């Protein structure tokens, strides 16, 4: 059963978004191809949490990351601004991850 979930992880987080990006980019444009490529990961993450009925800190972080990322994508006006906003969001999440370790060292 674990191998099944590993294959589903690879499909929903990697293969399907890549296919949406590759084949949807020309017909939809960069902006909508990026947004639509996040949908399989969000749906799969919610499905896994519902099926396992287990809530943990990492899962909350992943859902928060997906939710904030989707909101930022939808509020961006172009594909370029979307990519820059994702860089800023990544820096924000990096600061959240490393901030507790900086407090422990002092």
Describe the structure.
This protein has 106 residues and is an all-alpha fold. The chain has one domain. Helices cover 91% and strands 0% of the residues. It is built from four helices and no strands. It has helices at residues 2-28, 30-52, 57-75, 79-105. It is flat, with a radius of gyration of 16 Å.
Produce a short descriptive summary.
The protein has helices at residues 2-28, 30-52, 57-75, 79-105. With 106 residues, the protein is mainly α. The N and C termini lie far apart (44 Å).
Unreliable spans are: none
| Total domain count | 1
Q: In percent terms, what proportion of residues is strand?
A: under 5%
**Helical residue percent?**
over 70%
Radius of gyration: 16 Å
Query: What is the strand tally?
Result: 0
The residue-averaged pLDDT reads 83
Shape: flat
Following the backbone from N to C, one meets helices and strands in this order, namely: HHHH
Helix count equals 4
| Major sheet size, sense and barrel closure | none
Derived from helix and strand composition plus strand pairing, the structural class reads mainly alpha
Calculate the terminal CA-CA distance, rounded to whole Å: 44 Å
Q: What are the defining features of this structure?
A:
mainly alpha; 4 helices; flat
Secondary structure elements and pairings:
Layout: H1 2-28, H2 30-52, H3 57-75, H4 79-105
